[in-house]
Amino acid sequence: MKRLLLLLPAILLTTHICASENKANMLPLIPYPQSVERQAGELQLGQQVQLSVASEAVHAGAAVRQLLGDRKVEVSADTGPAVALVVVEESALGDEGYRLSIGDEVRLEAQTDTGLFYAVQTLRQLLPVEPQDSYTLPKLTIVDTPEFAWRGTMLDVARSFLPISYLEAHIDRMALFKLNRLHLHLSDDQGWRVEIKSHPRLTEIGGASSVEGGRSGFYTQWELRDLVAYGEARGVTIVPEIDLPGHTQAAIASYNELACQGVTNLSTYSGVEVGFSKLCLDQPDVTYPFVEAVLAEIVDIFPSEYIHIGGDEIKDPLYAEFISRATKIVADLGRTAVAWEEGSVAEMDNNVLLQLWNDEYDIQPALDRGHQLILSPCSYTYFDHGNYDGQPDTYTWCRKEGVPLERAYSLDPQSFKQIYGVESAMWSELVHTDETADNRLWPRVITTAELGWSPLEARDFDRFLYRLDALRPHLDALGIEYYRPPELGW
Ligand code: TNX
Fold this sequence. Notes:
The protein is α/β, with parallel strands linked by helices and 490 residues long. It has 2 domains: 2-144, Chitobiase/beta-hexosaminidase domain 2-like (Chitobiase, domain 2), CATH 3.30.379.10; 150-488, TIM Barrel (Alpha-Beta Barrel). Helices cover 29% and strands 20% of the residues. A hairpin with a 2-residue loop joins strand 11 (187-188) and strand 12 (191-192). Helix 1 runs parallel beside helix 2. The longest helix is centred in the middle third of the chain and has 18 residues, at 284-301. Ligand TNX binds next to loops.
């Protein structure tokens, strides 16, 4: 909340820096905080600090120790300014908000470990990446909470597999920008990527296929549990998607009985068409036990409140009934379903989230029934589209000029209603290596972070570029092989 500076005696010493301030006054932070108040003066941080960490702050504590260690700042019992991570009861901060005060000491306050973790990320962006003899920090108070609960990125690991090492690196990178949902598209026509113990052929057969030129492979349950913990330590929840009832050729090739009788195409698929495969909805005795068995193992691996059941690009007279039943199966497992926008035709609990992906899709009827949305309108958030018009190996079906950085940044989530969050998506029909994934994701994913967290008034593309430029050393330190947008002159 903005403070009434006029009432403060410190008026001459305090400036309120709002995001529309001119660039020189802006802090190099993305996402830009809800409120920044600068005080006169600076804090010098030398090579020692006195650190205290609330016992609840397990992940934030680990993050601040890592940050200090990386910057070659030692924790001392009695020398140097205090750095304190404190849990406070202050409902306005919510589950993810925090206050960062830099005065004669550095004080990080939040209601939760997650809030403190984000305070540490803000401090991290305020410090240079390279270790120095001493650090100069501006005296200030930042009070910051996110606009939206869901700030996500989606990786399609089904068309082309991404190794766990890439997913971990991606989580590290997401954390710096306070992104909090990693949506994994784990199954599609070209591949099945998650071990399901009751159905081992899904990965024996479906895991061995991929889109032509892409990578095959799958994750064991053990690897995924480990990844879940890796994310949890960095504020990132892994949201699994099993795409049903269409986009299922890999499952059908693994278990032919999932196809309707008379279907002759039962082999694995490596093309890029969509909309040709489906589980046989006329055989509920086969289809629903399969869906139940798979989802039971999925919820066992992934603690996420939300489980994505896909639901895109399929025509079947029994489609709506399928979505009703599948969302109910998820509810009976104690979770809440997410479905792509087409699922909105089904009768289902209105806590099911719908993910909007066609800009013009008429989602109003679902809004009227009370559903909330995850916004992924393709002409702004589909990062399988080019960074620039004509970029090789990119899609153009949604926007023929591609999705340049400025376009991605110009999405205005606040102009939609009933928004639970925003998410950008990288489909992998044409993205087959880690390097290409980096090129498609970065720096565009950073726009998702700001759209999902910062208030509308904070959004100005020039100032965003200025802050992004200032944070470039962080991208380099994280080993990101980002695309270099010409407007940045990188
Ligand atoms: C549409 S978006 C799809 C995907 C493709 C993508 C390519 C959505 C729910 N379905 O199956 O990979 O286009 O851009």
